[in-house]
Automatic annotation (TrEMBL):
Residues 1-20 form the signal peptide. It is found in: Periplasm. It comes from Bordetella genomosp. 4. It comes from the Bacteria. One of its GO terms (biological process) is cell wall organization. This is Fimbrial protein. Residues 22-138 form the Pili assembly chaperone N-terminal domain.
Length: 233
């Protein structure tokens, strides 16, 4: 009976799992519009040589769209053990709004070396991180955008409106007691510029006039907490 060789692909958001051979050294990329390009470093943490494929998508993890306003280079590279390389994103200068951020996803797909051993399972891990293109005319900082969020409680629905031109990625949203300590929480991923989200809030002990707190992911990939957020009814 012939030997069996199977390669299985998995993808992960953020910087990827600890056992990934190719490590992406950031959880997000902020592409400032005044810069000619943006970049992220990747490193081969394994003891084998890997090929690496890179591309951008606009949110569909199964797609590989062509002719996007931002190009990624190199689309294919070879990384020796412990070798580091830069993946660069370059905006063509046309096709994206100038008054708000645009969101893309950077895909880094590792391609493992061929294995001649029979009955071997190979795992090819793909890492996806967010790329935010921030036009140069936007002067608002992310912390200002987070503070500008509008929160409204309608019955058991929490409505969040983002009037800013920036995306805000939440870590968590919590109710808040008198000591400022969060008790119950709900999970919301991200709110886009100009977007309004309606979130079921049955698990939160919220009332009009009572504060809540939330945490968001800052430009460096860390978590920033905002407390004493006023609720409107």
């Amino acid at each position: 009976m012939a030997g069996l060789l199977v390669t299985t692909a998995f993808y992960f958001s953020a910087s990827g799992p600890a056992d990934a051979a190719i490590h992406v050294q950031a959880t997000r990329v902020i592409y400032n519009g005044q810069a000619a390009s943006a970049s992220v470093a990747i490193t081969n943490k394994s003891s084998s040589t890997y090929m690496v494929q890179t591309w951008l998508d606009t949110g569909d993890a199964k797609s590989m769209p062509e002719n996007l306003p931002i190009a990624i280079t190199p689309p294919l590279m070879r990384l020796a053990p412990s070798e580091e390389a830069l993946v660069r994103m370059i905006y063509s200068g046309q096709g994206l709004p100038a008054d708000k951020e645009s969101l893309f996803w950077v895909n880094v797909q590792e391609i493992p070396p061929s294995v001649q051993t029979a009955n071997t399972l190979q795992v090819a891990i793909r890492t996806r991180i967010k790329l935010f293109y921030r036009p140069s005319q936007i002067k608002m900082r992310l912390d200002e955008a987070a503070r500008a969020l509008q929160w409204r409680l309608d019955g058991q629905t929490l409505t969040i409106t983002n009037p800013s031109p920036l995306h805000i990625t939440f870590s968590q949203i919590q109710d808040q007691d008198a000591a400022g300590t969060g008790k119950q929480r709900i999970d919301v991923d991200m709110i886009a510029p100009g977007q309004t989200l309606a979130v079921p809030a049955q698990t939160l002990r919220l009332a009009a006039g009572k504060p809540l707190s939330f945490s968001y992911i800052n430009d460096y990939g860390g978590i920033t907490k905002v407390t004493d957020v006023a609720l409107q009814r």
